[in-house]
Amino acid sequence: MGAWRGLILVVAVLALAPLGLPPYMMTLLTEALILGLFAMSLDLMVGYTRLVSFGHAAAYGFGAYCSGWLLINTDLSLPSAVFVAAIASGVLAIGVAWVCTRSTGVSFSMLTLAFAQLLYAITFRWTSVTGGSDGLAGIPRRPGPFGLTALTSKTGFYFFVLGLLVAAFLLCRQLVNSPFGAVLRGIRENEAKTLALGYNTRAYKIAVVALSYALGGLAGALYAPFAGFANSELLFWLLSGQVLIMVIVGGAGTLIGPILGAAFFMFAQHQLSSYTESWAIYFGMLFIFFVLFVPRGIWGSVAARLRRPAADGR
Amino acid sequence: MQLGTLALLLTQTANVLSQTALLFFLGVGLTLIFGIMRVVNFAHGTIYMLGAYIGYSLARVTGSFWVALIVAPIIVGAVGVAFEAGILRRLYGRDGSAFLMVTFGLALILGDVVQIGWGASALRVAVPDLLSGVVLLLGEPFPDYRLFLAGFGVVMAIAIWQVLERTRFGLLIRATSQNPEMARALGTDVQLIRSGVFGVGCGLAALGGVLASPLVTASLGMAASMIIDAFVIVIIGGMGSFVGSLIGAFLVAFVQVFGNFYLPELAIAFIYLIMLLVLIVRPGGLLGKED
Fold this sequence. Notes:
The complex is a heterodimer of chains A (314) and B (291).
Chain A: H1 2-20, H2 23-49, H3 57-73, H4 78-100, H5 105-125, H6 127-130, E1 136-137, H7 154-176, H8 179-189, H9 191-196, H10 201-227, E2 229-230, H11 237-250, H12 256-275, H13 279-293, H14 297-306
Antiparallel strand pairs in A: 1-2
Chain B: H1 2-37, H2 44-62, H3 65-86, H4 96-118, E1 134-137, E2 140-143, H5 144-166, H6 168-178, H7 180-185, H8 190-212, H9 222-237, H10 242-262, H11 267-281
Antiparallel strand pairs in B: 1-2
Helix pairs in contact in B: 1-5, 1-8, 1-9, 1-10, 2-3, 2-4, 2-8, 2-9, 3-8, 5-6, 6-8, 9-10, 10-11
């Protein structure tokens, strides 16, 4: 019950944020929520199934290009374009996962990286669809089907993102606490044993990768109309590395942690870069500090301290 | 006409060999580090860049490219040893994500150090006088420097191979790579081997950076593009395999040179496609063990 109360409190505070925060903070917050959704989607793979993807930018960038292209070239409304892009990412992921799950460990990571870089190279060359190195620019936020013009405003779009993040969080939470989630944790702890218990672990892995990509694609699909552009940077390995770090800094395998990690990443980068030119130095030191002194991540450490012995377990 | 085509083919092949040499220095360091430590060094591209910049300054101060070629890798190698001893050493036994984060952090720090120390503009290193001429290959001019690179690459590859196969240090490296616990139980100072290999790996990347600097201007964008080349090389060849990194470097160089010449549109995508195919057929890379 405490968890529900906490969740409602946080969502209420976030819902009231537009009243008190200046516009530039709202822009940052919107981006933080989008990145939070992206990081949470990766947590399904990394934190719950120990499928460490080095190529999660593939989901984000693919989703962004899809929704951007749909919004520029078709009459689809913002919600439909975002939804279609998310589904498309999930479908793409089935193919990616089918190949990648033939391997495990570092090989799996490298295969996901190879796929993401392949997409990156394709966007560079398939100029007629992707806009080449310029990317897609001027992506509109087209109003919804029922005259939902509210979504086109900054605040309206913020609520749209917040609503989707909460829905995705509830979905993921439900999922990881279900029997399906138990199998995922079984794969994480000991895949051979889980397989021996009669579970088709590869099918489970493909399913979780598909869901993870769909949600990551959703985040990217939101980013395109948020920023108004989509470019190949969104598919670059650097972003894959960054999102993985968001997950780890926040606390892998906690769902909430990666969202916090993404917000922390965003705001720390923003604050540091406004104080000093050489923010990357401090940022780098911060990562090293986290690894040495906060190995469980932000939420992992907080949760461990909050947890009473009796309340242990899920 | 016939001779012209042949000459073109010959110069392109020479180009592939010199490019292979550059990529080999980058890849072999990464693969040695991975083989010994199971660490995927995300800072490798930045280390390469650091080598190029330090080499630039040394060449200016001393007036000799050759001094830079020897001293820059030693300095960068020392940075690598310090990083291993100061930070990585505390993390063995943790999962891979810890190494990802600290090496990523190191890449950010060094990237900024380079920007503060040398500024954001790209720097050009002059080709050493001795090698600034051209040779004629079947009538086609070909830069001496690239020919030197190809030769130097072959010499260094043989040297590294001999060190790994013939010396006690090489034996201990291979032993630690195969089974660190057993190596430790037999009295090897595994800690020292790890420091040494990390330093040597970083030094080799820096060597590649110095060698590349007369051909491509040293710039901040170097790091991000080189790290991915390095990954592709060791993934194709098999992580931890010395010969694999040589084959990987050759394949990537081949696609870069011939691809850029005949199919510039598809060259980049083609490299990743090869990497995917190799991984699908042999998940551990051509000569690697599946993990």
